[in-house]
Amino acid sequence: MIRPRLLPSFLVLAAALAAAQPARAVDAPYEERLMRLSEVLGSLHYLRNLCGETGNLWREQMEALLASENPTPDKRARFVARFNRGYRSFAATHVTCTESTREAIKRYMKEGEELSRDIAVMFGN
Q: How many domains does the chain have?
C-alpha cells in the first residue's frame, strides 16, 4: 500500500543526503535519479490536482529538493525543465480524472518513494 504522507519525508531526506555530498564539476552519480524524481513530482503535481487534491504539495517538494541540492543555475534549469516535462506530459493527455489517471498516480507515487529511498540508501553516506 502506498503511503502518500511518507513520500514528502523521503523526498526531503533524499535531497538532504544528496546535498551533503561534496560538490563536483561533473554530474554526481545520483543526479539522474534526482532529475527523474523532478519529473515524477511534476507528474504528481498535475495528476493529483486533476483528481481533486488542492494545493501545491508536489511543487513545494520540488522547491525543497532544489533548496537542498542548491544546483548551479544551469542544473537548476534542468531540474525545472524535468518537473515541467512531467507536468506537461500528462496535461496533454489527461483532462479528467479517470481510472487510468488514478492508476498513473499510484505508479508515480511508488516510483517517487523508490527513487527517494534508493537515493538515500545508495548515496546517503
A: 1
